[in-house]
Design a protein that fits this description.
mainly alpha; 316 residues; 71% helix; globular
């Protein structure tokens, strides 16, 4: 039986990391990853040619982010993920919680806004359409925590603990749609929290941390539920192929441990990114105040000194 469209997954040999990393490209994700890298590269080259700078760190983050998607979907990990819950969970966690963070740190929207040419007065080109989309009511809704946090949670419980998961895994388009959904959910969840790109919902740094920690515990609870279950909970993985030499319940326990661990790792990464962004924001604000003080001769300080002097006069 060919679950994934890449090979006879029912005849897969026992899983090893070496076998999992063998090349087995899903055409959809291969084209999507190459297109993403190509468009980003075009934007960077366009900026450099006109004499603008683009941070190397952003390019590195974006490239690694796209490559993590390719690693999950264009190797035999994708084949094993069709029949092994543990491998599937690695795919899910990386594509929903690691890849989006790295892609967002690459600031692709900011790059697009800087690289795309303006269409001219009265016309709407790609740049103008992108700006309209960013400022649309739709974007305000899907980046609001009242939407992103429930979506983040529902993508776990509403998928794995209902027949929907088995339905999607039963067809190649369904499987692709599910993986795209995981990536999209990660993007809209992490974008307002630590994304570099401009967005309609951008709370203060303390609120961003609260948003992060509001969603993460549910991942841990989900993982614990899988680890503590006394029987297989997902139909797709109830009868793994005999050639794999695994037992469904132990594989599910491993999947639960992976889900639990991944609730911690991205939290730390995002927290570090947030603290760096907070520090950089404070530094920029301090520099702006210094420039303003240089321009006006530090009138604010002079006014404060005059106020102190008046208090001293009144006290005599």
């Amino acid at each position: 039986m060919d679950h994934s469209g890449h090979g006879m997954t029912m005849d897969l040999p026992p899983f090893t990391l070496g076998r999992g990393l063998e090349w087995s490209a899903d055409p959809f994700f291969l084209v999507a990853c190459l297109a993403g890298l190509g468009l980003y590269g075009w934007g960077v080259v366009r900026l450099v040619r006109r004499g603008d700078k683009w941070p190397v760190g952003r390019t590195v983050a974006f490239v690694i982010g796209v490559l993590t998607v390719a690693l999950m979907m264009c190797t035999r990990l994708n084949d094993y993920g069709m029949v092994m819950f543990s491998v599937h969970m690695v795919q899910h966690m990386v594509i929903s919680m690691v890849s989006p963070i790295l892609v967002l740190l690459g600031a692709p929207i900011t790059l697009a806004l800087r690289a795309l040419p303006t269409a001219g007065r009265g016309r709407k080109g790609p740049r103008e359409l992108l700006l309209m989309f960013l400022h649309s009511r739709y974007m305000r809704i899907i980046t609001h925590p009242a939407f992103t946090i429930p979506l983040f949670i529902a993508s776990l419980y509403g998928l794995y603990f209902t027949p929907l998961f088995d339905t999607l895994m039963g067809s190649k388009p369904g499987h692709i749609a599910m993986m795209v959904h995981f990536f999209a959910v990660g993007m809209v969840f992490f974008w307002p929290i630590m994304g570099v790109d401009p967005g309609p919902h951008r709370p203060g740094y303390l609120m961003r941390m609260l948003e992060l920690f509001a969603g993460m515990p549910f991942h841990a609870f989900f993982g614990i539920a899988l680890m503590m279950a006394s029987e297989p909970m997902v139909g797709t993985f109830k009868n793994p192929p005999a050639s794999l030499g695994i037992e469904a319940l132990s594989d599910q326990n491993a999947a639960g441990g992976i889900a639990w661990a991944f609730s911690e790792i991205p939290s730390v990464l995002v927290l570090i990114a947030l603290l760096f962004q907070w520090y950089a924001s404070d530094q920029r604000q301090a520099r702006r105040k210094d420039r303003a003080a240089d321009r006006d001769g530090d009138k604010e300080l002079e006014a404060y000194n005059a106020y102190l002097a008046s208090l001293n006069t009144q006290g005599r």
